[in-house]
Amino acid sequence: MPDPLTVGQDPVGLVPAQQAAARPAGRRLWNALGSAWRFLVAIVLTYLGLLAVTFFIGRVIPVDPVLAVVGDRAPAHVIERTREEMGLDKPLPQQFYLYLGKVLQGDFGTSVLTSNPVMQDMRRAFPATLELASLGILIGVGLGVPLGVWAAVRRGRLVDQVVRVIGLVGYSVPIFWLGLMALLVFYARLGWVAGPGRIDIVYEYTLVSVTGLLLLDTALAGEWQAFANALSHLILPASLLGYFSLAYISRMTRSFMLHELAQEYVVTARAKGLSQARIIWCHALRNAMVPLVTVIALSYAGLLEGSVLTETVFSWPGLGLYITHSLQNADMNAVLGGTTVVGAIFVGLNLLSDLLYKLLDPRTRAR
Fold this sequence. Notes:
Layout: H1 16-22, H2 25-60, H3 65-70, H4 76-85, H5 92-104, H6 118-153, H7 158-172, H8 175-189, H9 201-204, H10 214-221, H11 224-261, H12 264-271, H13 276-304, H14 308-313, H15 319-328, H16 332-360, H17 362-365
């Protein structure tokens, strides 16, 4: 006679792991497909919402893109004809439907400022921002995480106070002022680094662009003088962005580490005789990295959006400077395209951080 407690597909009295093992494989597959489907729907709805918000904000701001094309002294009939050709005479829902169809084909329109397709301009500007932001986040993570760990271990001591002051200065001082002072000291006075721009003009028209990343392109071509020149231009703005992200990352690392060092498993590890270094770097930091991944991903997204002030101060031809110049010239196609790309970067990196979160924390995969 079967035990009544074991009748059915979900046995009573078993631990959750045993219950999961007792479920049919088909149900687990169906749950996995359902999770993947919900994840895909969330991505699609997020991007549609992003496109809708950027489009309607671009249409309600007091800037007429028609006047940016024909000028404010054009005859009235020319203005009306241009408005019809641009589709701006149609209702807003219809305009958005047409705009969405073009965006799905990778067409953000033509830039008034450069007369080039917006996508082509962004392909040229984005590698500059990618190179700058990538080096900046490497500096921020490479220095911010160890400093945050050190401050947490030495809580209340001189080291902790110094790290907190470094972070406070990074938060408080405007980055454009730091950029101007850095140019004055390290470029104008000391001559240690190159000035504004991405590379000297003597190399600009002789270098063959393959990836758009100057350090990589010059290294692949074996142009080491151009490589050194590009690196010299990159060091100062990347260091400022690295310092800006370092301030945030070190602060959050310190907070996460203080929480982990107060947990019971740390006391148990010390009681077992594990070394302090192993407890900190192999156990506490490993657990602190779970929430820290999101912090780093969002910091990187903030740099990739085009640090407008830094790119303006250093005349860095990146995405932030491109959007700024487009906005100043009422080039709404470029502004909407750039804003959409920035939002997509934020959404993409946020989703990536969620996936990494699940990889680092096995508990989230069991939910």
